[in-house]
Every structure is written in structure tokens, then in C-alpha cells.
Amino acid sequence: MKMYLSSFRLGDHPEQLVNLVGANKKVAVIANSIDFGNDPERRKAGVQREIDDLTKLGFQAEELDLRNYFGKPQDLEKKLSEYGTLWVRGGNTFILRRAFKESGMDKWLISQKDNKELVYAGYSAGVCILSPSLKGLEIVDDPNIISEGYSIETIWEGLGLIDFAFAPHFESPGHPETEAVGKEVEHYKKTGVKYKALHDGEAIIIES
User: Fold this and answer.
1) Which pTM value belongs to this model?
2) Whether CATH 3.40.50.880 fits 2-206
């Protein structure tokens, strides 16, 4: 699986994402990290912004709402086979993790780690979820936040598809989470957790 791991939105060099993607330009936009809000219009606008940004790059983007597949992992697997790229946006990592588990997205994604045709892309929470553990993220994200239809269980295990904790928005003036992320990084240093901290605009590319 190829990866495009951004700190914030598409980053400063979105052409690098374009170069990663093969012939299948269809992109699934996964925005369940923002399911905790009570303003559906704001959520809709946030999803549309992601779709518009990806469309400008030449992709065919549409939302894939994991809530529609809670308890239906086989249906989700069939739907996911249509896409060449997954774009997982930022928000709350813990509610995104719940959505991955409830839909079976977590197990499916792990099973695709050797799929060279698939690109996993996203930013902030959409990358944090790939880490071995979500411990430390509670400094930035509320782990107890839930939404209608979600389990109340807090899941601390990440997917383990990257071998480091991901700290986005590090020393990024203007981003509301940058101060909390600084504390998160200090926590990783003190506890000996391997991590990578990115400034907004930066992205990590993994092609192996």
C-alpha cells in the first residue's frame, strides 16, 4: 500500500499525491472523524471542500460514509474495491477509530497492506489512526467523544500500518491544536515513543 500522510489537508505539494496514484482515479473521501458535531450542514460543507480539492487535482472523488456499513463488513469490502485511493480527513482520531472498527474498515485495510495498487492518503486524524497505539493522542483529541450509532468503547489500539506515532500541526502557527500537539510531542519524548512531527504543509510519502 502506498501512503500520502499529510499534516493538514493536501499539503504544499499535492502533485506528489497525484504521482502516487495509478490508473484508477476514483477516490473515497472518508470523513467520519467529524461525526461528533451536531451541525449537519457544517459537516456537509467540510466533506464537499475535500471533494472539491481532490477534483481539482483530476480525481473522481465522492464520500464513503462508514456509518452506512456498520455491521456490514462484506458490503464495505465490495464498495472499497471500486477505489484506487482512500482520502481520510482529520478530526477526532478516537471516533474515526470507532468507525473503522464498527464497519470492518480496520481489518480490511490491514489486509491490504501489500496491495501496491492502493493509495492511502489523508491528514491529521486520518494518519494518526495508522499508528501502533493511540495513547498520547488524548492530549489533543477527546477519547470519550461519541455520536449517535457509535459504540461508547474507547479503542486505544491503532492499526499498526506505520511504526511511529504521528503528530500533525507541530509548531504550526494559526492552527488551533498546535499548542496541544507540542505537549503531545513532549509526552512521546518522555515515554520513549517513536514519533514523527510534521508542520502544516508537510507530508510523508511511503511507496514500499
Assistant:
1) 0.96
2) yes
